[in-house]
Amino acid sequence: MILPEITPLTRPYWEGARARRLLLQSCRRCERVWHPPSPGCPHCGAPDPEWVDAGGTGRVHSFVVIREAAHPAAQGRLPVVVALVRLAEGPLFVCNLQGCAPEDVRVEMPVRVDFESITDEIVLPQFRPAG
Amino acid sequence: MTTAAAVAQTVGPSGFARRAAIVGVGQTAYLRRSDRDEWDLALEAVRNAADDAGIRPSEIDGIVRYSQDRIHEAQLAGALGLSLRYHGQVGFGGQSVCAVVGQAAAAIHAGLARVVVCYRALNGRTGARYGRAERSLEDEGNGTYRAFGDRVPSGAFSAPYGLLAPGQVMALWARRYAHEAGIGIDVLSAALARIAIDQRAWASRNPAAVMGGRPLDLAAYQAGRVLAEPLRLHDFCLETDGAAAIVVCDAERARAISRQPVYVVGATQALYAEAMEVYGELINGPDHRARARALFAGCGGMTAADVDVAMLYDATTIMVLLQLEGYGFVPPGRAWETVIERGIGAEGVVPVNTSGGQLSEAYVHGMNLVIEAVRQLRGTASSPVPGAATALVGAAGASSLVLAR
User: Fold this and answer.
1) Which A residues 4-43 touch B at CB under 8 Å?
2) Are A43 and B156 in contact (CB under 8 A)?
3) What is the pTM of this model?
């Protein structure tokens, strides 16, 4: 089991996930959003971003079917589809594509967010086919 | 604008204009198991590079190295009896290989040092294996591992999903490339197979290549196990124990001591937050192509067509395909077709990775690619490209080097 380190910067994100909310950071100046968290806007450099709820929809930008573990910790989850989802808001988001056999995944397939409890503390935002 | 593009910084295209030259190259044997300390490997490569340059190691007064190298400047200086005037490090691993050389040339140009050595030493097979994420996760016991930071792969926002190794990220690139090029995975695989097979053919003529005695054909490529679909075993670089080093000095001294100085004509350094990342554009994207055009234009108004031989950073085959487009050798979305038709050997749009590269010679974080470029320009490569006068070393656009004899 691989768990994320939680830092002061990323705590709101993980607390949001535990409440089954997908949070993104948003710039108070240029109003663009991004992921993963950063203390400064990657678009315009403004400080002090705010957290906003993502709509939870997107499309599969790309995906990889991992059939051989690159680390013993990943052994238990094979084969696994790691998808790169283009969120409706714009950012790319790494996740697993769930509820879909590897051979049925397609690039540009519409997907929606779901949440997977890993431990009492960690819930991973995941995606599955929309509709 | 992508996150990556927003933080991109560029140093070059340089005005190096032949003010610095590579005068020595050196390497250890490239092995699956060295049974030696990385420190010892580094010293051998540097001594060999100094010998090749015709200088005593004690004449080295500068070091520029990868920050990822575990052998630090004081270890090298101490064991070789160097009196340093300058030392520097470049971050981000293999994508910075050309920046290591570029900063050596810059230090010389600025008068901070006269003779600078650049090196990379790693037991990449028997030590920490980059392909297996052995550097990145912290073992907390009871089968629990912790992922840190925002790096992709292996950071807190990717490792929990099982995305752990650079090659897995490149599989994401491969799938996206096929989609954007409008080709099926079978066609993409035909192009990637050709890259793996052609680099193995180059390696068959290189006595130093780890895979020199092991020819690869299409059937063997297709029989390779799928590690990160759509990438198979032979799409991935080697893991190697070994070291490689080069010696750079000012042009005047280079002409005095070397019959075949290889000049640094241009060098660029960028920062795509990680060039091995997933959040930015693919490395054949508009930003990469614009940077490549600017690099070449800054080298006396050349274009990709003026490159006689190219070393393109090859952690995986898909990187080579993407860079053929990113550096402008073929239009975007067309490299698959060119590679299937012409390959990347002597008949290719440009001969690529003529030592076998990191797929088939050795994985030394790109420093072996720099050495091969030097040998091509000297005419001493194991598979010389006739008349080669200008070489490109490209590390995914994150750093690039134009060398000329």
Assistant:
1) 4-6, 10, 34-38, 42-43
2) no
3) 0.95
